[in-house]
Amino acid sequence: MPEIDIYDPRIMHAAILQIPPANTFLKNLFFSTTETFFTEHVDIDYYKGGRKMAPFVSDRKPGKVMDRRGFTTKTFTPPQIKPNRILTPKDLQKRSMGENIYSPKSPEERAKEFLAKDLIEMDDAITRREEWLISQIMFNGQVHMIGEDVDQILDFNFTNSVELSGTDLWTSPDSDPLEDLKNWRLSLVQKSGFNPTHVIMASDVVSTFVRHPVVKDLLHNRRMELGQIKTELLPNGVTFVGTLNEIGCDIYSYDEWYVDDDTDPDHPTEKSMVPPGHVLMASTRARSTLLYGAATLMNEATKQFYTVEGTRIPDTWVEKNPASRTLALYSRPLPVPHDIDSWYVAKVI
């Protein structure tokens, strides 16, 4: 039986498909649909609002032509994400973590372990970047992609946002968080036709919300079928706070962070996926897609370029002097919300 080359692209791609996907709350909730392109660029279609009614006409007049609902198309080339790992002969001679001292593994066995571990860790890093992209788009309406020779902004012209001030802040006893949520829900239904299904709050907002006198009074008034606040811890930093029947939404908090080393590489800072003081109201029924551009690689055997379509594209190459093998994982993700008016963002504290 011929020996299997673990670095064959088909073998590596099959290995990637076997990796359990990392749990990401925003991605799983709002961008679970994916689409791949065979080109590096992707075409983005999105639209805003529109509630025209069919016109009345006389029996003696012909029907009136109605304009089709317009949409905006942008062609965008997502910057390439390409984490890589280098494997050297020295790495294969070292005992790996947890390896039995008295039953050492062969370099070939360690090479397989390195391949599996590196693919998993690079896949996790790309997944975290995808969650960051979604967070930026949903809370800012745009995403600023910064990297080595990369400085691009993709703006969706998002306008459903507000920053409260004065006595409207939820930290003020004179504010009314429930009335705010009802107004934002009504605005979304009016603009997009979608009923929101989820409200996601930063942790500091949750604490302020559940202790607000208006919320406490209504929740304890049995004559009002408002809903139920019942905190429940879920995996991966997600907390189910409760349900508000009046707006038809479940409330969650999401505690997840990322290290921002793009803005200032010399001073990386840890930031929240859900910005402090913010509330996101959105619908899982609105159409959103996570698009992926293709990657162009070179075949080492034929020395020819070829293009590969996929969400994760592995590649590997060797250097003879000094001897090393580089393993890379390519991806060109771009989250696209097609219904721009289907979510609302507010800074409430």
Key features?
3-stranded mixed sheet, 349 residues, alpha+beta, 7-stranded mixed sheet, putative capsid protein of prophage fold
Description:
There is one protein chain. The chain is of the alpha+beta class and 349 residues long. It folds into two domains: 9-48 and 72-153 and 289-333, putative capsid protein of prophage domain like (putative capsid protein of prophage fold), CATH 3.15.30.10; 160-282 and 340-347, capsid protein of prophage fold. It contains seven helices and 21 strands. The protein has helices spanning 9-17, 25-30, 89-93, 107-140, 177-192, 203-211, 213-219, and strands spanning 33-36, 42-46, 72-76, 84-87, 142-147, 150-155, 161-163, 198-201, 227-233, 238-244, 249-254, 257-260, 269-272, 278-282, 288-292, 295-299, 304-308, 313-320, 323-330, 333-337, 343-347. A seven-stranded mixed beta sheet has the order 7-21-14-8-11-10-9, with helices on both faces. A hairpin with a 4-residue loop joins strand 16 (295-299) and strand 17. The longest helix is centred in the middle third of the chain and has 34 residues, at 107-140. The radius of gyration is 25 Å and the shape is globular. It starts with 8 loop residues before the first helix and ends with a strand. The model is unreliable at 222-226 (pLDDT under 50). This is Phage capsid protein. It comes from Tumebacillus flagellatus. It holds the Pfam family Phage_cap_E.
